[in-house]
Automatic annotation (TrEMBL):
Record domain DDE Tnp4: where: 190-320
Cofactor: a divalent metal cation
Molecular-function annotations in GO: hydrolase activity; metal ion binding; nuclease activity
Domain DUF8040 as annotated: residue spans: 63-154
Family: Belongs to the HARBI1 family.
GO CC term (a single one): nucleus
PANTHER family per the UniProt record, alphabetical: OS08G0106900 PROTEIN, PTHR22930
Transmembrane segments: none
Protein name: DDE Tnp4 domain-containing protein
Main location: nucleus
Compartments reported by the entry: Nucleus
A Pfam family of this chain: DDE_Tnp_4
């Protein structure tokens, strides 16, 4: 009996010691938590209205870009157009379209206006990322990410934003006896242009054009109001214009020509159905007809002159709309 009682006493003592140790442990933890909370409270109290220092490899979130773009939108619209290649009202309209029709949206740290402004500085002035970072207070990574987001968004709505070929006679042709009725079924002009490209590796030779430069051969169709109808920008600089046109007619998003209508093309394309090229071996370019005594001498030269005058729309869209507004090299 005595042995049993002693055993029970030992178990009771061990249980009390465990409870005491547990109590001391909990009390110690509560004291440490209390000390930690006090230190945090003092830290927060000391840094109120002060800049929070972060590690050097991480830039703080900045509102300078947001403030900058919203300030400049309210300033001189002419200055805004010189910088961003469009007037403020057009810029804001494009931002609205991007929000409503694409996945591009404001985030917690950057708005669509700021993203689009950075994009336009790059494509409009060939501005380097290092300058974009200084203007908007963003990191190199953030600038690159936002550029690609805007590019992807614009690409997704590009087809819908293009003007659709119409069946009516264009005003430029209808109102001129030089062109009507001879070109009454013409709806626009087509040509290719070479856009400088950055290519590395084994593919570089296929992108080298006949001038020895690395480029993409981009096919563009426009109407006589200088509005884009179709753009194809997937071919290497070495590709011939006629090959690019043939590809454009066979794609899922093909170049569509209404029945009975045609586009004007230059001598680099074959004369084929729906595409009217000038007479070969005969004066064609406008400068060849300028000056005293250089008027057309026969029917073929007369047709070529009027053909070149109409097709000049595509030259103007390359020169005044693209090259003058967007730096391509």
């Amino acid at each position: 009996m005595a042995n049993i009682n002693m055993h029970e006493v030992d178990e009771q003592m061990e249980e009390e010691e465990l409870q005491e140790e547990l109590h001391e442990t909990i009390e110690s933890l509560l004291m440490e938590i209390s000390k930690t909370l006090y230190v945090l409270y003092q830290y927060i109290a000391n840094i109120q209205d002060e800049y929070v220092h972060r590690p050097l490899n991480r830039q703080p979130i900045s509102t300078s870009g947001y403030n900058y773009i919203h300030r400049i939108l309210k300033e001189n619209p002419i200055n805004f157009r010189e910088i961003y290649r469009m007037y403020p009202d057009i810029f804001l309209k494009l931002c609205k379209i991007l929000r409503e029709r694409t996945s591009l949206q404001d985030t917690r740290h950057i708005c669509v206006e700021e993203m689009l402004a950075m994009f336009l500085l790059v494509v409009g002035h060939n501005t380097r990322y290092c300058l974009i970072r200084k203007t908007f207070g963003r990191s190199h990574y953030n600038t690159s990410q936002n550029f690609n987001k805007v590019l992807k968004a614009l690409k997704s709505i590009a087809v819908d934003m293009m003007v659709k070929p119409g069946s009516a006679v264009p005003e430029k042709i209808r109102e001129s006896t030089r062109f009507y009725p001879y070109f009454k079924d013409c709806i626009g002009a087509i040509d290719g242009t070479h856009i400088p490209a950055m290519v590395s590796g084994q593919d570089i030779n296929s992108y080298r054009n006949h001038h020895g430069e690395i480029s993409q051969n981009v096919l563009v169709a426009c109407n006589f109001d200088l509005e884009f109808i179709y753009v194809l920008s997937v071919w290497e600089g070495s590709a011939h214009d006629s090959l690019v046109l043939t590809d454009a007619l066979s794609r899922n998003n093909e170049l569509k020509v209404p029945g009975g209508k045609y586009f004007l093309v230059d001598g680099g394309y074959p004369n084929r159905r729906q595409f009217l090229a000038p007479f070969r071996g005969v004066r064609y370019h406008l400068q060849e007809f300028t000056g005293q005594g250089r008027h057309p001498e026969n029917a073929k030269e007369l047709l070529n002159l009027r053909h070149a005058s109409l097709r000049n729309a595509i030259e103007r869209i390359f020169g005044s709309v693209i090259l003058m507004n967007f730096q391509l090299n």
